[in-house]
Write a structure and sequence with these properties.
With about 475 residues, this protein is mostly helical. Helices cover about 70% and strands about 0% of the residues. The protein is built from 18 helices and no strands. α1 runs parallel beside α10.
């Protein structure tokens, strides 16, 4: 049992035969919450890994506008999301909000999607991280170890940090994020200093550019750069002032990284040259930023970026490991998963058992991928991360809809916060979701039709959760009734 208890509905009403529900200590302020959100988004890894693909295969010079669209829709989502986070101050985030807006059956279906999506992100991220570390160490030091060695090392460290206090993890991640933004600032400032106004070509602000090339792909990839933006609410039970901190952290994260994405993508178009984008070969897409760094800064800075990508990916996997473990913790505490998962560490106040479960699942998947000889990036990494991205967009769209229903009879219902913004975000997210499924090969990095059918796992997980909820309602009514109490 932890040293602190929650003063509100965040404490689960125990079911017959259960022990007192575990709670997590409140140690997180707005800045630390924002740190976890930004870390989950991994701005440097997104810039290096996603922007070049969106630039070449998407809408070209109009890429900055694609980020404007994604930022606006994400901000609209945050309006309703922040409003409901002030009302429903519990762990579970998507799951809890959807349950209150659309009912317990839909909520438990969404919980199943969330657990599967976030849990699958972790082994996918670990394998991707192992590949990045293998490549970087080989380039920088000349050592060519198997990617699994690096993945297992990262797995062990992330598992250790996941068992510790969440604010301990926040301090570790904060340093990584600061380095990311400093490097991006140096990169952007150096190019602007050398190119002047040429670094900001006016073609990038031409709205007609969004209709050229493959704008759907650009917007889709822009949305994936916001993966994890919703994670602040999942730490509600650990926030010092959840009614305000969650909303502030979410807005702070969205607009901070949104500005960086917009400015950096605009400068990238200027640095590459609007007329040179179509001439970039597929083999050079992943090298765009390294070549720009060599050209406008120097080779040493390029090596620093390579190393920073490793730490950026590490921070992302750590953050999403924490997210997955907290979903398991809430569901275990409630009895929808084995109750052992709902135990908090007696010293650190962390969801230690759930964290260990995420680590165990990740280890099995990563070892299985290595045994089968799958490519760490194309064979597991991108496929798992693409699947997780589709799952989260599905949850965001469902949450937007649930917000409208939750506030429809609310005495303090506000038209903009509780109706208009959530409806607009729902429409935008459904559109992005359709594009994501239709263009899943750009997320998975594969042309295999079987691989690109992986998103079917989302409705399957939803169905499993719904059927389990129906079973609970009939055979375990006390547990079913507790879903809305969380």
């Amino acid at each position: 049992m932890t040293q602190s208890t929650l003063p509100n509905a965040a404490t689960l009403v125990p079911s017959p035969g259960s022990v007192e529900a575990a709670s997590l200590p409140r140690t997180l302020g707005t800045l630390r919450l924002a740190v976890f959100v930004i870390a989950a988004v991994a701005p440097l890894a997104a810039v290096i890994g996603v922007l070049p693909v969106a630039l070449v295969f998407g809408s070209g010079t109009a890429l900055p506008l694609a980020f404007v669209v994604a930022t606006v829709v994400t901000a609209l989502f945050a309006v309703g999301y922040s409003a409901i986070s002030r009302e429903v101050v519990v762990g579970g985030a998507f799951y809890a909000y959807i349950a209150r807006g659309l009912g317990s059956i839909t909520g438990l279906g969404a919980a199943c999607v969330a657990v599967v999506s976030y849990t699958m992100f972790v082994p996918g991220g670990l394998s991707y991280l192992g590949f990045v570390m293998q490549t970087s160490v080989n380039d920088l030091l000349g050592y060519n170890l198997h990617w699994l060695v690096y993945s297992l090392g990262a797995w062990a460290l992330i598992g250790f940090l996941g068992l510790r206090k969440v604010d301990f993890s926040a301090r570790a991640v904060l340093a990584v994020i600061l380095v990311e933004f400093i490097l991006l600032l140096i990169f952007d400032a150096t190019i602007v200093k050398q190119l002047g106004s040429t670094a900001f070509p006016l073609q990038s602000l031409n709205l007609s550019g969004l209709t050229q090339g493959a704008p759907g792909v650009a917007i889709l990839l822009a949305f994936t750069c916001y993966f994890g933006i919703e994670s602040a609410a999942l730490y509600s039970e650990e926030a010092k002032s959840p009614q305000t901190a969650v909303a502030r952290a979410t807005y702070l994260a969205i607009f901070t990284i949104g500005i960086f994405y917009f400015v950096t993508s605009w400068i990238t178009v200027g640095a590459v040259g609007p007329g040179n984008i179509k001439g970039i070969s597929e083999a050079d897409v992943g090298l765009i930023y390294f070549k720009l760094s060599d050209k406008f800064v120097n080779g040493t800075f390029t090596h620093v970026i390579q190393a920073a990508i490793v730490t950026s990916m590490f921070a992302t996997v750590l953050s999403l490991h924490n997210v997955a473990s907290r979903y398991m913790f809430v569901l275990g505490r409630q009895g929808c998963l084995p109750r052992v998962l709902g135990r908090a560490h007696p010293v650190h106040g962390s969801p230690s058992t759930a964290s260990a479960a995420v680590s165990g699942i990740s280890l099995i998947v990563v070892l299985g991928a290595a045994y089968l000889g799958l490519h760490p990036m194309l064979g597991l990494g991108l496929i798992a991360l693409g699947f997780a991205a589709v799952g989260v967009m599905f949850l965001q769209a469902l949450t937007s809809l649930s917000i409208v229903f939750y506030f429809r009879r609310h005495p303090q219902r506000k038209l903009w916060q509780h109706v208009i913004a959530p409806v607009l975000s729902f429409v935008g997210l459904v559109g992005a979701l359709v594009v994501a499924v239709h263009n899943f090969e750009y997320l998975s990095g594969s042309q295999n039709p079987v691989v690109n059918g992986v998103p079917i796992g989302i409705p399957v997980a939803m169905t499993v959760g719904v059927l389990f909820a129906v079973w609970l309602r009939r055979y375990r009514p006390s547990l079913f009734a507790a879903i809305l109490k969380n």
